[in-house]
Amino acid sequence: MSDATDGFPLDGAPRAPFLPVAATPRASTSRVIADALRSAIVAGTLAPGAPLRQDAIARHFSVSAIPVREALRQLESEGWAKVEVHKGATVAPLSAEEAREIYEIRSALESLAIGLAIPLHTGETLRESEALCHAAEAELDPSLYVARNEAFHMSLYAPAARPQLADMITTLHRRGERYLRLKFGLPIYKDESDHEHTALLDAVRRRDIATARTLVAEHLLGSGELLYRFLTERAQAEAAQAKLHKPRTRRARTPTGS
Fold first, then answer.
1. Are 49 and 87 in contact (CB under 8 A)?
2. 95 φ, ψ to 5°?
3. In 3D, which of 169, 218, 226 has the Cα closest to residue 196?
C-alpha cells in the first residue's frame, strides 16, 4: 500500500486536526467517521477521486471495518462517495449537472419556506437574521462562510416551523457545500451574494412575501447556473490540456520492396 492516500493520513503520518479520533459510544462511531470524512471533503483535504481505503480509515479511528463500511455507505447515499465493486470507495467527483440541480431544488423548497415563515417572524427573529447576515458578510474564510451562509438562510425559514421541510433544505445545503466553496473562490461573487442577502432580508422585514420568494429563487438559481458554467468550462479546459500533452504515437513505417 502507498504511504499516502491523497490527503488522508495513515498510521505513519501525523494526525490531522480535521479527523478527530472517535471517542463516542459504538452506536455512533459510524456517524462520527462519516462526519469527519464529509468535513475533509468539504474542506478540500480529500480531493475528488481520492481513495477512501477502509483499512486506512479503520486504523486511524482504531475501529473495526464494520463502522467504516457503514460510514462509507452513508456517504455514498448522500452523494459524497462513490463505491465500485472490486475498486473500493473514492471521493465523488464534482459535477456541473449535480451543482445546478441542487440549487434548482433549493430554489423551489426555500421559496416555499420563506413564504411560510414571513408572517410568523417577530422582532427577535428578525434581529437574529440580521446579525447572521452581517456575520456572513464579514466572513472571509470560505470554510467558515459556508456555515454562516447556511445559518442565515435557515434563520429566515425557522419561524415556519416545518421540520421536514427544514431537514430537506439542510440536506441540500450539505450536498452543496463543496460547490459553494468553489463559488466563493472568486471574491466578486461573494460581494454579489452579500448584496442579495441584504435585499432578501429587507423584503422579509417588509413582510413582502412575493418579493422575498422571487429574490431567494433568483439568488439560488443564479448560483446554480454560475457553478454549472464554471465547472463545465473547467472540465473543457482540463480535457483540452490533457489532449495537448497526450504523447503522440509514431506511425509504423511501411517496408519498402526490393
1. no
2. -130, 125
3. 218
Residue 51's H or E segment, with its range, is strand 51-52
Whether the model clears a pTM of 0.90, i.e. scores above it, the answer is: no
pLDDT per residue as tens, the chain (258 positions) = 333 344 454 344 344 444 444 444 444 899 999 989 988 887 778 888 899 999 999 999 999 999 999 999 989 988 889 988 878 899 999 999 999 999 999 999 999 999 999 999 999 999 999 999 999 999 888 778 888 999 999 999 999 999 999 999 999 998 888 888 777 766 678 888 899 999 999 999 999 999 999 999 999 999 999 999 989 998 888 888 877 777 666 565 555 554
Residues facing 84 on adjacent strands:
88
Domains of the chain, first to last: 26-91 (1.10.10.10), 96-230 (1.20.120.530)
DSSP 162: -
All cell numbers assigned to 207: 413582510
Q: Which three cell numbers stand for residue 253?
A: 513505417
* Other beta carbons within 10 Å of 233: 11
C-alpha 110: how far from its chain's center? 17
How many other C-beta atoms lie within 10 A of the C-beta of residue 77? 9
Written as one string, the DSSP assignment of 172-204 is HHHHHHHHHHHHTTSHHHHHHHHHHHHHHHHHH
Distances (CA, A) of 160 to 13, 102, 124, 157, 214: 47, 22, 15, 6, 18
